[in-house]
Amino acid sequence: MKQLFNLIGSTIKYFATNWIAIAALAISYLNYRQNNSQIEIDSTGQSDWLLSLLLNSGESIVNENGLLHVNLRIINSSGSDISFFDLIVLSSNNKQLTYHCQKQHNVFTRLEERLIISGLKSDYDIIELNIPETNFGTLKSHSLTSLDIIVPADGISSELFVFFKTTKKNWVFRKNKIGYVNSPYQSFSASYRVEESNKPNYKEALEVLRKQ
User: Which residues span the membrane (predicted)?
Assistant: First the structure.
């Protein structure tokens, strides 16, 4: 019993002597938890085919090989904004694919001041699109960011992957297992199945659209 009282007394004495250091450590940990990157990917893993992209000018963008659409939903549950960069799309054979960005529409492409606002699906339904401005951006705190990735269908196989980095560094003992394996920054990814059997006959569909 005496040993127990001595242990309790020593513990109380330790906390009384070092309470400033303990409080500082607790505050540092809470700040770390609050500011640490808390990114989640919400993905259905599905893709769909689009016949064309519709611009705010009334014009449209078509591709005779097809346009594949996937939706990337990124949840930032942390208390601070987090920047992302190096947004890329890869095929299953590790080939980097191009995708549509709003910044591609400029004086050099003769599409200045034109924005992609919606897409025409293979069943002729129209869906609204939120096309990335470019390959980097900001994920607002406590928010969901939804990005529609549109990929020309050249060279696409049965699956494609979307990767991006954030400006948060990896933990010292943690490395990325996929995507940017050797990057010191945290990276995230989503995979999507490509149903080639659902791909419409684009030549026939575009002929119908031209006659309308």
Answer: 12-32
